[in-house]
Write a structure and sequence with these properties.
Helix 1 crosses helix 5 and helix 6 packs across helix 8. The chain is 35% helix and 21% strand. Strand 4, helix 4 and strand 5 form a beta-alpha-beta unit. The strands form three sheets. Strands 2-1-3-4-5 form a five-stranded parallel β-sheet, with helices on both faces. It has a four-stranded antiparallel β-sheet with strand order 6-7-8-9, covered by helices on one side. The protein is α/β, with parallel strands linked by helices.
Length: 251
C-alpha cells in the first residue's frame, strides 16, 4: 500500500522540486493549503508524513507543531520542512518542536526523495517492551517523553528524548558528535555540527544540578559525550569540559 504524504503549503505554487521528486506514483499525495487546515486534515487522512513547503520558520509553525505533538493521531506521522531560509536557531526550534528533518532550498529532487524515504523508514528510538528506563536516580519515560529525578518530572522534546534514549541505551559509552548526528538526526545532514552541543546543553539543563560541573552527561574531551550514573564514577572520574569548551572545540 502506498504511503500517504500530506503536502502543506501557503502559496498557490508549490516548490517545483516537490513535483519533480514525488510525481512518480510511489506515494499517495494529499495537499493542504494553509496552516489552519492542517489539524483537521491530519485527523481525517492520517498521513505517514507531512511535508511543509514554507518560506521561513515562524511562530505560527511552532504553534502548529506543538498542537501536532499533543494530537494522538499525529504522533506517528513524520514531519519534514522545506524552507527558503533558516538560521541555526530556527532549525533547532523546528527539530525541538517535532520536525524530523529540515531542508533548505535549493535541494535536488533526488535528495528530497531520498530524505523522504529515509524519514519514512526511520523510527523513534524507544525501549523494547519497556515503558521506563532508569540509570541511577534518572528515569526516562517513553509514554509522555518525560524524565524524572526524584519526585520531579520534566517534559522532553522529541529530539531531546531521542538523544537521551540513545545515550541511555549504552551507559558509559562515549559517542562522538558524528555518531550522535548519524543516529539521532538521521536522515538530516546538518551542516552546523554544533546542533549536538545545543541539545547536550538542553539535556544538561534538565538533568544536572550544576551546568559548570556536569556529573551525568559528560564531555570526554576530544572524544565525545557519555551518560553515566554519578555514583559509578568513583575517584578516577574523567575530566569533563564545560559547555563553553564544547562549543570552542566543536570545529
Amino acid at each position: 500500500m502506498r504511503k500517504r504524504i500530506m503536502i502543506v503549503h501557503n502559496s498557490s505554487t508549490l516548490a517545483p522540486v516537490i513535483g519533480e521528486a514525488l510525481n512518480n506514483g510511489t506515494f499517495d499525495l494529499r495537499f493542504v493549503f494553509g496552516l489552519s487546515n492542517v489539524i483537521e486534515a491530519v485527523q481525517k487522512q492520517k498521513p505517514s508524513l507531512l511535508l511543509f513547503d514554507i518560506s521561513s520558520w515562524q511562530k505560527p509553525m511552532e504553534k502548529l507543531f506543538l498542537e501536532l505533538m499533543e494530537l494522538k493521531s499525529a504522533r506517528s506521522s513524520r514531519k519534514i520542512i522545506l524552507s527558503d531560509s533558516a538560521g541555526l536557531d530556527d532549525i533547532v526550534t523546528a527539530l525541538d518542536s517535532g520536525a524530523d528533518d529540515f531542508l533548505l532550498k535549493p535541494v535536488s529532487p533526488r535528495e528530497l526523495l531520498v530524505r523522504l524515504e529515509a524519514t519514512l523508514r526511520s523510527q523513534t528510538i524507544v525501549f523494547p517492551e519497556e515503558e521506563v528506563r532508569t540509570l541511577g536516580a534518572l528515569s526516562l519515560y517513553r509514554e509522555g517523553m518525560e524524565i524524572s529525578l526524584g519526585a520531579e518530572r520534566k517534559k522532553l522534546s522529541p529530539k531531546e528524548f531521542n538523544l537521551l534514549a540513545h545515550l541511555m541505551n549504552s551507559p558509559g559509552r562515549v559517542f562522538s558528535r558524528e555518531e550522535l548526528l548519524e543516529s539521532v538526526w538521521i536522515p538530516s545532514e546538518i551542516e552546523d555540527r554544533r546542533i549536538v552541543d545545543v541539545y547536550i546543553r538542553r539535556l544538561r539543563e534538565k538533568i544536572e544540578d550544576d551546568l559548570s560541573q556536569p556529573r551525568r552527561l559528560l564531555t570526554r574531551r576530544g572524544e565525545g559525550y557519555s551518560l553515566v550514573d554519578p555514583l559509578d564514577l568513583g575517584p578516577a572520574k574523567a575530566k569533563v569540559s564545560t559547555e563553553s569548551e564544547d562549543l570552542r572545540h566543536s570545529g
